[in-house]
Design brief:
Blueprint (H helix, E strand, L loop, with lengths): L1 H25 L3 H30 L4 H7 L1 H23 L1
Helix pairs in contact: 1-2, 2-3
Length: 95
Amino acid sequence: MGLIILVTSLLINPILIYFKRKYGRKLDSPALLADAKDTFICLYQTIVVLAGLLLVNWLGWWWADPVAALLIVPYAAKEGWEAYTKAREINVDKK
């Protein structure tokens, strides 16, 4: 069942990203553009998880899945830091 969800995500998320970016720009919607970025993170996670699982199942590399999971950390940390700094700017502007 998990593989079905991952493959579905691999197929659907690029379409969602495309249209969220397209209409986010067209509507000048920062929220929709941020949602497109969030969907990209989901796609990235899907690719990493699938790669880890495939390496474990096909090559027997038991360590590949945890190492693949570590590949998500730098990107997630970067996005988290960006969200934090943007939130601080909003709070500073309101004071």
